[in-house]
Each structure stands twice: as structure tokens, then as C-alpha cells.
Design a protein that fits this description.
The chain is α/β, with parallel strands linked by helices. Helix content is about 40%, strand content about 20%. The chain has 2 domains: about 200 residues, Rossmann fold; about 120 residues, UDP-galactose 4-epimerase, domain 1 (Alpha-Beta Complex), CATH 3.90.25.10. The protein has a 7-stranded parallel beta sheet, with helices on both faces.
Length: about 325
Amino acid sequence: MHILVVGGAGYIGSHMVKALCHKGIKVTTFDNLSSGYRDAVTGGKFVFGDLSDRATLMSLFRQENFDGVMHFASHIQVGESVTAPAKYYHNNVTCTLNLLDAMRKHQVQCFIFSSSAAIFGEPNKIPLDETHPKNPINPYGRTKWMVEQILTDYDLAYGLRSIALRYFNVAGADPLGKIGERHNPETHLVPLVLKAASGQRSNIMVFGRDYDTPDGTCIRDYIHVEDLCQAHLLALERLLDGSVSTSYNLGNGNGFSVQQVIDTASRISNRKITAIDRERRPGDPARLIADSAKATKELNWQPKYADLDSIIKHAWQWEQFCQN
């Protein structure tokens, strides 16, 4: 089996490459290194390239015989998507179309798509299952939902089957400390809190303490990156076995508050973390929690690191490694 991982030098993509290689699967990573790192790709073949370059993409598909494609090469900053929507529609939609057209031309018909809980918009029920209305409230979320709709059309017209995996809050790092989360700029809570613990930041900002939650701070569903990759492997196996196109929400089904993340990080790092209170951010719901029952039932997926301690512990190991 030979799998193409697009965006395999990024945070989730690099963990996916590692998981595929561990299973003995042949892997090629295609990445332009705009937000990824060459040293994060720990196995397989690496090809430098950009999805906007159709000629390079077609050449790669001519040279290799891929059984499936995993796509992680999206821009992901919600705030930036609001101020620079053209960047997001070009990369997340147009470039994905280039990839799908290369697959179609070369008869590669299995596609795993990195989607997002952002497609749902403001939740009208908790936890969120796959049937929840899709009403994204920012360009980032809209690009993900557009691609999901494109995938439905490509399946009906061309037989290109896909599974869209909708992540909630991905966190953690390789338990062995080999790779981890590196974003520039960093916008995710767990690494920001740990940078405050390591002294890379002077504090962490808490946006709102008056939510209808036990401690007043927002609650989010954190999923360990290793568990996420296992879900991808199971989805790939299902698709290669002939499954119809579908989608899955991926989370632990348990929520942890911002304050719980800070307290856990402080305890595990044995460092004091200074929190600065700020006003609520527009559009931040009090709770976002996934209903992953469909993935549990159909993929037989069971998160191994569902507890916050494991997620923070592995992320802290990576943060310490980066500082040494």
C-alpha cells in the first residue's frame, strides 16, 4: 500500500506519517513547508511542492502509484481567515480541487479529508453529532464545509470516495517526544499555556470567566493527536475495504475548561502560570463537545489518551525538548 500525505510536515500530518510508517505502510509526504518542518517528517519519501502547482502535482501522480490520499494542507487560523479570506479560499478550496483533479485523472479513489468542527458554527445542542446543522460563521469553517460538499459531488459524478474527519481541539504530542506541535504564530491553548509554564511567555490570557460552566471558563473537547491518527488509520482501512463516503466527528466526548487546562499544566510542569483575564471573544460558545458515537460504532475507534493529564504530559515533554 502507498499513501500520499499532503501536508505531512505539519503538526497532525507529521504524526500521521509516523503512524503510517509504524504500520509498515509506504508513505510519500507532499508539503511546501509554509507551516511545516522538514525534520518533522520521520519516515517515508518527502517531495517539496505546492498544491497550486498543478504541473508538479500531476508529475507526482504519474511517477507514483498511490492507493489513497490524506489531506492536511489547510490554513487553520480562524481570525486570519476573517481578515484574509482570499488566502483561505485559494489554499483550502482551490488547491484541494487541484488535488482531487489529479486523483481523478490518475484513478486514485480513496481520500481522507481533514475537516473541522468549525463547519457547525454556533452549536444548538451539545454534544454535536454528525447530523447537527452546518452553519459555519467564519471563512475557515466555510472552506471546510465547501470541500465536504465538493467531495459529495465528486463521489456522485466520478466515484471518488472519501471520509471527512471533523476534529474538535487537537492537542498533545508523540508520547516518545520525537515530534509535537509547532505553529508560528501559535494560537492553540495547550501549547500557549505550556509556553507560559516554560517561560517562553509571561502569561496566558483567559477570554471570559462568566460563562455558564462550573468554573466560568469555556469548555472544549480535547483529542490527543495520537488518537486522532488512529482514527485516520481506521478510516483509511474502511475506505480501502470499499466503504461508502461518509463523515465522522472526532473528540473525546468529554470537555475540559480553560481553567482546568491551566491547572493541569501547572501541576504537571510544576510551574506557576500567570493568567490574565480578558473580555469574552465574539462567537466563543460556552461549550463545544463532540458526539463520537458514530466513529466508535463504525470504526471501532477508542481514544487511548482521553484524560487531560496524558495530553498535557506529552505536550509538556515536547515543549521541554524544544527548549533544550
